[in-house]
């Protein structure tokens, strides 16, 4: 082969190699690998993640869309699991108990989506911290049997500012229809009484859902309250001062009339005042004092208190000559020892005591004064 032909061959071969190198080195690159798809399962919370000042009675729930929970748990500051229920379809979990005040709660677990991929269950929230938690009590207590004038009383350790919020948390259920209403007798006491006396043998259920309720000024309810009690037979004590008799009616019939001495009629400080009261307490022996009238540590038996002003129905055998004839007590209703015992044995806390014909009336200020108010006066004391 001649030199010129050899040079042409090498030139052609070099061009071919250059073309190949140009194609392989300068052409478009290979396609990049595709990113994996995001999991489709979506977990959400109520309250939302990182929420603060959550009311401990608020609904607490975790929900998963496009998947199901494999496991889900809510724990408190101490790592203790909160009681709750997973829905049968596995798509939601809800707490079944109220939470605590001033706590941090943490979600954990995992869910699997419809695409088979897992996602974590994670997040935190905190509950509100009250300035103070306020204790309340309810009366009557469970299983009590009380008279037909007995009010329901809820009392608080501190004054309540948001009375409407508290009152809305109170509920009364009765075995027969009974019209009644709540009334605030002070900043620390709200009572419920029927418009008229309770029907005999009514069963009463009281519910006070006070935990988590704001009382105002940073105060919250300490705990819920409940009570179930019964109204007894319908017994009414009637004291017509001028008759010198104390009459007892039971279920609409007179069952007793006792010779009595009421308070001195011409001394307002010694009157047995007009009004409707209730039997508040019973004591087989009561020690009585009245410095104004100069007596101390006087022992009387079979004493049934019907006013915190100082009035009782009790034995005063020493005043036997006046019983049924003269009103000369210091405001109490005196009976003979036998009659006082007979009455005492029939009395229930909450029985009404109706005093009429006196020279004076009791102002509505001495606990318990629920029945000294008219129905219009009573309902005007409601906060809602």
TrEMBL record:
Q: Which InterPro entries match?
A: Big_10, LD-transpeptidase, LD_TPept_cat_dom, Transpep_catalytic_dom
From what organism does this protein derive?
Answer: Saccharopolyspora oryzae
PANTHER family, per the entry: L,D-TRANSPEPTIDASE (PTHR30582), L,D-TRANSPEPTIDASE YCIB-RELATED (PTHR30582:SF2)
What Pfam families does the record tag this protein with?
Big_10, YkuD
Q: Which UniProt keywords apply?
A: Acyltransferase, Cell shape, Cell wall biogenesis/degradation, Peptidoglycan synthesis, Transferase
The keyword Acyltransferase is assigned to this record? yes
**Keyword Transferase (UniProt):** yes
What is the protein's given name? Answer: Ig-like domain-containing protein
Question: Which residues does the Swiss-Prot or TrEMBL record annotate as the active site?
Answer: 314, 332
The metabolic or biological pathway listed in the UniProt record of this protein is: Cell wall biogenesis; peptidoglycan biosynthesis
Q: Where is the L,D-TPase catalytic domain?
A: 235-356
